[in-house]
Write a structure and sequence with these properties.
Elements (H helix, E strand, L loop, with lengths): L13 H11 L18 H14 L7 E5 L5 H8 L3 E6 L2 H11 L4 E4 L13 E5 L7 H11 L2 E9 L12 H10 L3 E7 L1 H4 L1 H20 L4 H19 L3 E9 L1
Parallel strand pairs: 1-2, 1-4, 2-3, 4-5
Antiparallel strand pairs: 5-7, 6-7
Helix pairs in contact: 1-8, 5-6, 8-9
The structure holds S-adenosylmethionine.
Length: about 250
Amino acid sequence: MSPQLPYRDFYYPLNVFMYVLSNEERAVPYLHYGLFEDPAESIAAAQERSTELLLSRLPPPPATLLEVGIGLGTTLARLAGMGYDATGITPDLKQIAMVRERYSDQLRVHGIAFENFDETAQFDCVFFQESSQYIDAGALFQRASDLTGHVVVIDEFALAPVDTPGALHSLERFVAAASEHGFQKIEELDLSLQAAPTVQYFTDRLPAYRDRLVSDLALTPQQIDDLIESGTRYHDLYRSGVYGYRLLVFKR
Ligand SMILES: C[S@@+](CC[C@H](N)C(=O)[O-])C[C@H]1O[C@@H](n2cnc3c(N)ncnc32)[C@H](O)[C@@H]1O
């Protein structure tokens, strides 16, 4: 068995994605999908394109930002370096430990879920790069309405009803929840075609890592099989247009 990996106890399946990326790529800055212009380009280049897109929708610095779901802290560190007054949260204390290890105390981070983040300060913008899918849409916009008038989201959604436990949030319900809390959608960009090769990236590679994932991350073979199966299902759902990937901007 390998020495214990610092991301071993990240929430499943983020620990699995981190494992595959760490073994396949020279560096792992992000846990989000890539936006591919060409399916043959590297996942690193495609992930960077997503970050650039996100940055292009933020108010210019200086501004106060809240990043919800900081992952490995790469975007937060970049924002701090650009002159933003940036705060980041994640409920995963293992991520907080890794971010502190990578950036010492340079970044303002809190180990807390967005639903429980009882900050009273106002932010010029609150953004979610693939973290909105973990939060009930009503709870998300209720909490956001106390904190900001500007929300940016990059994430995947169900575009049609899906009768499967754990299915993605409905986009229609997400936008309705925003409106119930006074937010108007001012931009919606369909990125589904660019994002979908990310699913293929993992489904192509996961089978070869099956045994090592079980021993190095202390997972069950069933968990790996479930993930491979879910990748195939996602692939079909993206292809049929039931699942899609969006940039969404809301303002009040
Ligand atoms: C797919 S990762 C994306 C990480 C990072 N934004 C990136 O783009 O690399 C999802 C992130 O959302 C965080 N998350 C999950 N549930 C959350 C919640 N209830 N509140 C805040 N963050 C949450 C995870 O811990 C993780 O940091």
